[in-house]
Amino acid sequence: xxxxxxxxxxxxxxxxxxxxxxxxxxxxxxxxxxxxxxxxxxxxxxxxxxxxxxxxxxxxxxxxxxxxxxxxxxxxxxxxxxxxxxxxxxxxxxxxxxxxxxxxxxxxxxxxxxxxxxxxxxxxxxxxxxxxxxxxxxxxxxxxxxxxxxxxxxxxxxxxxxxxxxxxxxxxxxxxxxxxxxxxxxxxxxxxxxxxxxxxxxxxxxxxxxxxxxxxxxxxxxxxxxxxxxxxxxxxxxxxxxxxxxxxxxxxxxxxxxxxxxxxxxxxxxxxxxxxxxxxxxxxxxxxxxxxxxxxxxxxxxxxxx
Length: 306
What we know:
The protein is built from nine helices and twelve strands. The protein is of the alpha+beta class. β9 and β10 form a beta hairpin. α6 (169-180) packs across α7. The longest helix has 15 residues, at 93-107.
């Protein structure tokens, strides 16, 4: 069945609609529920530009779908995240939002558009393939029961500490870009972006672990997250980086174990993370620490130059 939706750009007076729709899509994971304040802080991050890059689909003034297009101008890439209310799927709304994403990516002069879907989302994958997208990468979402405590003595010549707000943003930005430049899909961050991310109100901000050398230079980090809820069941490991010149010394394993220890100290029963399935060293590290495959996702790519 086809039903034409009206797609309009985001406006701040629809923040409540946007937040409610997102939470509807997260109904299976109560930990990820958000409120308007945290959503507002997210949308006000540098380079989000919600008035131009976020869209709401409506049928007879009923919100039925959302789209956010992220512009990564440095690498000429756009990334689309879209959601359609399950009650309105198979109405052609996903196709409308997908075309809106393609049009917006072209307006942004992006060369490629990427969209991530779960591997078992047959309808989503079919929609993308029909639009000319090709599967280019697989990611694993891994999970681990928490409780094990690892050796917490830093390697000789290094020390572990927490991130210092207002002091470490520049060094963290430099290390993250150095660690991931050249990695698939990575767009270098600006200091302004990192400054904003560490201040998002959706997560507790004290979970960024820093590894520094004797000269107080940051050479590694493990960015953990935990929802601001006393009964949160899940902790998350976001990005982990080690200075490329110091890889192979076991520092990556140590900083990941330190992140797990930190979440364990908070009585968080499970730790989740996402890893590029093609990144063999990272993948095998996590598996050796007891992480197990929870689900698999596929990144699809559309070459906008064709």
